[in-house]
Design goal:
By secondary structure, this protein is of the alpha+beta class. It contains three helices and four strands, in the order βαββαβα. Strands 2-3-1-4 form a four-stranded antiparallel sheet, covered by helices on one side.
Length: about 130
């Protein structure tokens, strides 16, 4: 099996995920994992799929053809993930918003050799 990592973005409307899933299923692909979200009228996600080698090229062509339906797909070949030799941690930060805050925090983490695997940010009103 070949593994692909897809990034998708499209206008937010009903049926977008089904169109992507149908395309994958029609080419014997297996949807393994995903993270998807709606933001500012757009729908975006990243997903990992497995596809038999004999269906790979046809699936890639079909995914790229989704652009005709307004679904942009970026495809990356996925290799074998290295075994985990580090300890995962979860961290939650709260602070006053300002331009560059994400850059500053991620720079500090990178300087310490921290690999950010998942990041979620938002801005909330405060009294």
């Amino acid at each position: 099996m070949n593994h692909l990592v897809l990034t998708v973005i499209a206008a937010d409307k009903a049926g977008q995920v089904e169109r992507i899933a149908q395309t994958i299923a029609e080419h014997n692909g297996n949807w393994l994992e995903s993270r998807m979200s709606r933001m500012a009228g757009q729908f975006a996600g990243i997903l990992r799929i497995a596809v038999p080698a004999e269906s790979h090229d046809e699936l890639v062509d079909a995914l790229q053809a989704l652009g005709e339906r307004g679904i942009r797909v970026l495809i990356a070949e996925s290799g074998i993930e290295p075994s985990c030799s580090w300890k995962p941690i979860a961290m939650s930060l709260v602070g006053n918003d300002r331009p560059g805050i994400v850059r500053d925090i991620t720079r500090l983490l990178a300087e310490q050799g921290v690999n950010v695997e998942r990041l979620s940010t938002d801005v909330r009103p405060a009294p």
